[in-house]
Amino acid sequence: MVLQSEIKSALSYATSKGYQIHPDAFAMLKGLQGDLLKAVQDIIRQKKSGSPVIVVDDVKGLIAPESAAEAPPAEQKSEVLMDSSPAVNTGEGVDGYALLFKSRYEKTMRILAQRPDSRRIAKISTVKQNGRSGSVKGERSLGNAGTQIIAGLLMSRRQRKNGIELEIDDYTGRMQVIAATEDARKAASALALDQVVMLELENAKGVPGLSIKSVFSPDIPDHLPSRSKSEAYAVLISDMHVGSKYFMEQEFLRFLDWLSSDDDVVRKISFLCIGGDVIDGIGIFPNQDKELLMMDAASQMGHATKLLSKIPKRIKTFIIPGNHDPGRRALPQPGFPQATSGGLYGLENCEVLGNPAMVSLNGVKVLMFHGQSLDDVIATTPGLSYQRPAEAMKVLLKARHLSPTYGERTPIAPEAEDMMVMTEIPDILHSGHVHVTDVDSYRGTLVVNSGAWQAQTKFQQTMGITPSPGIAIVVNLATMQPFKKDFNQ
Questions:
Q1: For 471, how many CA atoms within 13 A lie in the half-sphere containing its CB?
Q2: Would you call 52 helix, strand, or coil by DSSP?
Q3: Calpha distance 142→122 (Å, rounded)
Q4: What is the fold of 78-89+222-486?
């Protein structure tokens, strides 16, 4: 592992010589064996171009000056690992939703079963019965650990005088328990409503009944993300909103021109992921017609397809729908309907998938989800805001569910299987919807909200949302290092 002192010395030396180090080059340098400062010194000494930026090719030249230039490009491979479109099989009414939540519960409990403490999970009916019979008054009745564990769906969260009350539901019944300590309150506040959660309960002094000692979300484990064995870049964008008066067409054309350029980065771009809201749609919100340039979805889709046809054929492109696009708006969403796709399916380098979808890009697993549920997460979780959507996306990763909250702004279809449960751990979670660019990482997963190509709307002004449009997120799949490419003037 490179020490912070070595990194600081290397950066100081480069700066003193008038050089900057590109993030991708810096990530590659940190992976080198040996003296980092000496490596930077050798690169500057060998650097032939007059550019003041040390780039990946400079580092490659240090490793193997001849072979780096002569090696042919490796074959780039992609695979669809999960597509919600073929699996959509909508149920009906109460029975359909009963199947949905049964699936959610069972799939998430299998994830929780990987925790050692899950073997101690007791049925809620058993815990309640013991409480009524008086057998949970002392710690001895709670087992050797002095605690009891339950697990189920989080049905409600309420502020009480003595703490935060959570109502948990499993197959056998419901139970209300209090988070009284500061740590328990903080953990309880961070949960998403309707997610599956595991709670460790105890007899706390001054708190009637059982109170929460510890809170466990299904969560993703700490892990090392998969990486491409060859250098390849993926570009992540979302929310074009073609047809809107606020669509930033000139900036998007600048982006398309860049994809066709001979730029050093562009030559390594193999994949493009578009995270929904390709068009602005029709009748999505009241008085939308006053904000449209194109008054029907077919015209909007046709123009969007014309723009996307400019993407170089060598760049494999994956597209999912958003809540503004044609088709059903309830999650999970099938791919764009053929009849109203505007020729999108005819683009030979484009693959149209449902929302959500997971693709493998040179072995890197990218979970694409438009992000409608971020509205609910931000509204119901203290401390979150639209200006930091990556924090809301982390809540989804912790819940291992892309749209846990039912009955709020996000419509959820009564599917027999809950396809929004994250059974596989993504290397990259890519969303959009909120129009704010944000990049972070969580336990080994790169978290990307890719912003938008639509200027601030009147609705966003009233909500106090300041979008960051006209920016593409580029990820080096070999190093998992992301950087932003700004196409605003």
A1: 18
A2: coil
A3: 11
A4: Purple Acid Phosphatase; chain A, domain 2 (3.60.21)
**For residue 437, which of 487, 403, 386 has the smallest C-alpha distance?**
386
Q: Tell me the C-alpha distance between 196 and 112, whole Å.
A: 9
Thinking of the domain 4-70, which architecture would CATH place it in?
A: Orthogonal Bundle (1.10)
Contact 194, 405 (CB under 8 A): yes
CA distance 213 to 121: 14
CA dihedral 252, 253, 255, 257 (to 10 degrees): 170
Give the H or E element holding residue 187: helix 182-189
Task: Provide the residue ranges of all domains of the chain, joining segments of one domain with +.
Answer: 4-70, 78-89+222-486, 113-216
Q: For residue range 348-369, list pLDDT tens digits in order.
A: 999 999 999 999 999 999 999 9
Count how many Cα atoms sit within 13 Å of the Cα of residue 31 in the half-sphere of its side chain: 14
Residues contacting 43, CB < 8 A, separation 6+: 54, 58, 59, 61, 62
Residue 66, judged by CB atoms within 10 A of its CB (0-12, 13-18, 19+), counts as: exposed
List phi, psi (to 5°) of 338: -55, -45
The residue type found at 173 is G
pLDDT at 3 over 80: no
Query: What's the one-letter identity of residue 385?
Result: S
Mean pLDDT lowest among 78-92, 272-286, 377-391? 78-92
Q: What is the residue type of 67?
A: S
Q: What is the pLDDT of residue 184?
A: 95
The pTM score is 0.83
Determine contact, residues 54/18, Cβ cutoff 8 Å.
no
CATH number of 113-216: 2.40.50.140
* pLDDT reported for residue 34: 62
Residue whose structure tokens are 């993504």:
426
- The torsion angle over the Cα atoms of residues 434, 438, 440 and 445, rounded to 10 degrees, is 50
DSSP H or E stretch at residue 173? strand 173-179
The 10s digit of each residue's pLDDT in 185-236 is: 999 999 999 999 999 999 866 666 789 999 999 999 999 999 999 999 999 9
